[in-house]
Amino acid sequence: MKILGIETSCDETSAAVLTDSLEILSSIVLSQDEIHAPYGGIVPELASRQHIASITYVVEESLSRARLSLADIDAYAVTQGPGLIGSLLVGLSFAKGLAYSFDKPLIPIDHLEAHVESAFIENEDIAFPVLALLVSGGHTSIFLLDTKLSFHEIGRTRDDAAGEALDKIAKFLELDYPGGPVIEKLAAKGDPKEFPFAIPHMTDGSMDFSFSGLKTAALRLIREHDISKNHPKFADFLASFQQAVIRALLANMSQSIKVYRPRSLILCGGVARNDALREAFQKLGRNVPLPTYIPSPEFCTDNAVMVAALAVEKLAHQKDTPLDLSLNAYPR
Ligand code: KG4
Ligand code: ZN
């Protein structure tokens, strides 16, 4: 079987073709970073318009690199939500049209579940139960999976996502968009102990996150120390802030491990490209000790391979895969 996956939930237009044994025949990701960079963040209206302009090319290119035509595709998979509603609708409508004209199944995919699935693309034998930390620009959550496809969200951010906090501080400091990778590069030369940050703790025993407090603390330090690109301790400040975000993420993960006693750990989402976070997560795994799985960087940021991969799992477990043309996108 050949599955064509489509992902347009945010600012990447992506299509990928996979076989039902998870062989990747092609993967195309067209980023809109340059379009949103002048605004320091994603402009939803520009994102959906760019998806419309790119989607045909991206899907055609994914087919041509896989040396296939639409008639060879056995099933379609598409991100249904959560994400930007206008962006989601472009991919969903396109996939519906293809599935309808070729009379093939259409598998709706949850974006957060697809991020978690990205860890299984390169590792099929992950022991359950699994605790997965998903850290991206729009989401920061912990999922518990007792078995394949049983996604239970046990904690989520109550305000900003971790990537969003990095992007907002970067924007405030007039760094390029997206801020996460820019901060990582500059922070590599800094001392993370130079600026103290208090790590937020939920008082109600929940595994939820909060990053707005860290963001406010960062803004206060920026004002107090007059931090800017020319400040001699600029790299130290960024290293300290990045380290605080990582500590906040891992504090909840450690607590969740104690409560839920998993057999393996996953780190996924765009911020999982960050080497300092990857290393800290692996160290946590060694200390517990539990095996850790982190996807290759290209599968951390938004991509259609993870969408098609989750569809392969669903097709294997679900007997009935009808074509439901009334499917709608959901923003959250
Ligand atoms: O998963 P993703 O592509 O989109 C969402 O679903 O949100 O994640 C994008 C986020 C952005 O906030 C970006 O700054 C962050 O991932 N990011 C990074 C790095 N690469 C991307 N954050 C820290 N370090 C990186 N190397
Ligand atoms: Zn994402």
List keywords for this structure.
5-stranded mixed sheet, 2 domains, alpha/beta, binds zinc ion, 332 residues, 11 helices, binds 5'-O-[(R)-(carboxyoxy)(hydroxy)phosphoryl]adenosine
Structure description:
There is one protein chain. The protein is α/β, with parallel strands linked by helices and 332 residues long. It folds into 2 domains: 2-115 and 300-317, ATPase, nucleotide binding domain (Nucleotidyltransferase, domain 5, 2-Layer Sandwich); 126-294, 2-Layer Sandwich (Nucleotidyltransferase, domain 5). It has helices at residues 33-36, 44-65, 85-102, 111-121, 162-172, 179-187, 212-224, 234-260, 275-287, 297-300, 304-317, and strands at residues 2-7, 12-19, 24-31, 75-81, 106-110, 130-135, 140-145, 151-156, 264-268, 292-293. The strands form 2 sheets. A 5-stranded mixed beta sheet has the order 3-2-1-4-5, sandwiched between helices. Helix 8 packs parallel to helix 9 (275-287). The relative contact order is 0.18. The structure holds 5'-O-[(R)-(carboxyoxy)(hydroxy)phosphoryl]adenosine and zinc ion. 5'-O-[(R)-(carboxyoxy)(hydroxy)phosphoryl]adenosine is lined by residues 10, 136-138, 163, 166-167, 178-181, 184, 269-271, 273-274, 301-302.
The name of the CATH architecture of the largest domain is: 2-Layer Sandwich
Strand residue percentage? 15-25%
CATH superfamily membership of the largest domain: ATPase, nucleotide binding domain
Number of structural domains: 2
Q: Which structural class best describes the helix and strand composition?
A: alpha/beta
Main pleated sheet: 5 strands, mixed
CATH top level of the largest domain is: Alpha Beta
Count of DSSP-assigned helices: 11
Small ligands present = 5'-O-[(R)-(carboxyoxy)(hydroxy)phosphoryl]adenosine, zinc ion
Q: Distance between the terminal alpha carbons, to the nearest Å?
A: 31 Å
Compressed to H and E, one letter per element, the order equals: EEEHHEHEHEEEHHHHEHEHH
CATH topology of the largest domain, which one?
Nucleotidyltransferase, domain 5
Strand order of the largest sheet: 3-2-1-4-5
> What value does the Rg take, in angstroms?
20 Å
Which regions contain 5 or more consecutive residues with pLDDT less than 50? none
Residues in helices, as a percent range: 40-55%
Arithmetic mean pLDDT? 96
Query: In total, how many beta strands?
Result: 10
The coarse silhouette is globular
